[in-house]
Amino acid sequence: MTDELCTFIRCKGLEFMESGIYNFNKRLHLCTRLLIGHLFESAASICFIHHGALLIKSNL
């Protein structure tokens, strides 16, 4: 192989790796945002249930 072809293949491999890392980070960022959203919803539900239980207990 010529030096130019080897350089081209190395550059294309690097671009492929960088795009793969970018796509992975993009998916990870989306999953992290979804996970945080679910955690906030769960925390809100737990607080709501706990607050409701306290109200019921105080009315007894």
Verbal overview:
This protein is mainly alpha-helical and 60 residues long. It has one domain (1-59). The protein contains one helix and no strands. It starts with a helix and ends with a helix. The model has no long low-confidence stretch (mean pLDDT 67).
Q: Would you kindly provide a brief summary of this structure?
A:
The protein is an all-alpha fold and 60 residues long. It contains 1 helix and no strands.
Q: Topology, please?
A:
Blueprint: H1 3-59
What shape does the CA trace take?
Answer: rod-shaped
End-to-end CA span: 86 Å
Instruction: Tell me the fraction of residues in β-strands, as a range.
Output: under 5%
Uncertain segments are none
Q: Supply Rg.
A: 26 Å
Number of DSSP strand runs: 0
The major pleated sheet works out as: none
**Helicity level, as a percent range?**
over 70%
Q: Compute the number of structural domains.
A: 1
Q: Could you give the order of the helices and strands? A: H
